Amino acid sequence: MSRRDRLRAETTAEIKAIALKLMAAGGPDAISLRAIAREMGMTAGAIYSYYATRDDLVTTLIADLYTALVEAAEAARDAVSADDPGGRILAWGESVREWALANPEGFRLIYGDAVPGYQPPADGPAKEAEQRACRGLTGLVAAAWGGPDKGEYGWPDFDPVLAEDIQAAFPGLPPDAVALTIRVWGRMHGLVALEIYGHLRTLTHEPAAIYRDEMRALIASLGLTPPA
Amino acid sequence: MSRRDRLRAETTAEIKAIALKLMAAGGPDAISLRAIAREMGMTAGAIYSYYATRDDLVTTLIADLYTALVEAAEAARDAVSADDPGGRILAWGESVREWALANPEGFRLIYGDAVPGYQPPADGPAKEAEQRACRGLTGLVAAAWGGPDKGEYGWPDFDPVLAEDIQAAFPGLPPDAVALTIRVWGRMHGLVALEIYGHLRTLTHEPAAIYRDEMRALIASLGLTPPA
DNA sequence: AATGATTTCTACACGCCGTTCAATGTATGC
DNA sequence: GCATACATTGAACGGCGTGTAGAAATCATT
User: Fold this and answer.
1) Exposure check for chain B: N or C terminus, fewer CB within 10 A?
2) Residues 39-58 of B with CB under 7 A from strand D
3) Which of A128, A127, A173 is nearest to A153 (CA)?
4) Residue A198 forms contact with B (CB below 8 Å)
5) Is the pTM of the predicted complex or chain greater than 0.90?
6) Contacts of residue A211 in chain B, CB cutoff 8 Å?
7) What is the pLDDT along chain A (228 residues), one digit of tens a residue?
8) What distance separates the 2 farthest-apart alpha carbons in chain B?
9) Residue A198 backbone dihedrals phi, psi, to 5 degrees
């Protein structure tokens, strides 16, 4: 690795770091190439040596953030022993909410439409992080899966890549479990999204307790006993 | 009402209509005063006679859209007889999803952060629509409320205005039911938000069926029997 | 009918944004 | 040592929202 490559990598990292800082300070719309360049003592045009367009920068930011979120959730899950599937689900859910509260702008960047006109690419690292999240969640559901397979869904109902991925990771798991996983995902997502976007702030002072209740109900609905 | 006031009202309505049209066509970021003025054959500055700032325009748009959403949900609910509380909940949930799919940009405007730098005002018509939605949802929960009141929550845990509103509308309903209502709201919101923001599109082709399953599970979790 | 007050509109300046492009300087690899 | 590839600059373009100043139109009053 030449000196030039090293400098280039450093500059690339600095651009991302400053972009995240700007976003944390002023929201996703504060991610402007001009502001980043100003902060770095460069001109705006120079950034185009590193990212072809602003959307490219945002795309890598999203991928980084999504990966961080998934890793936080996985770490929280792995901190609970595998013979407590309910506790693992609770840990996952709580860690997602806590990460979102700690990185509200990141959450908006990942799950919202924070950047005007931005269209997420169909593949790439962000998509990979999403599949990783889905796989983790499926693992949690698989550990609880004992219910009857009604056969309401088939593998063609799901994305081929995801279906193959899950069949490889959890052999024998029926498609219905994947549908249930998506429902679980939605259930974890709903209250957090409402809270991050400020729709709970004006209604209640106890979002944490309500979310915890919801997670416990979710765990119970999977036939598990939620931890004390 | 003088002639001047009438013309003013017409122009105001036209601005809103064009703003909605632009939003439907090009997303929320397409709401630019310049574009609206261009469409109306005016200059951008002229709009400042009707809305002090762009945020004011967005605020009224949000209020209009939120009201439309709530009215759609109420209409769907009222189309089901009151002695079928489970069916009413299903109707409410399905209508919210359908409205969101028919007005994805409106959904983003209401529940997302689509407009950069926009901060929703603490009160006003939008807040009123939100309270109306919450009241409607509480009514659905109240009709199913038979469970034990564990007394986990108290009225001070909630917004005073909301608490007073609900106590007046549903006398005797405990605060725990309001917490449950917020959980129900989150549960309805989660999958729809994921779908509108394109996070389900890449995973499954059957979001409607999954949402329906989730609604039926929700109804069952309230101790009701979901309709066939 | 004419005057005065108010509203509405045009025109323009300002600063911000993303993006492009030729020119300039600099470091790398031969 | 030199040609090449690269990073960077600075200016420019078009578009955005905001705000202001003054002209024009409209209304209300006499």
Assistant:
1) C
2) 44-45, 48, 52-55
3) A173
4) yes
5) yes
6) 186
7) 677 889 999 999 999 999 999 998 888 888 999 999 999 999 999 999 999 999 999 999 999 999 999 999 999 999 999 999 999 999 999 999 999 999 999 999 999 876 766 777 777 788 889 989 999 999 999 999 987 788 899 999 999 999 999 999 999 999 999 999 999 999 999 999 999 998 999 899 999 999 999 999 999 999 999 987
8) 62
9) 85, 15
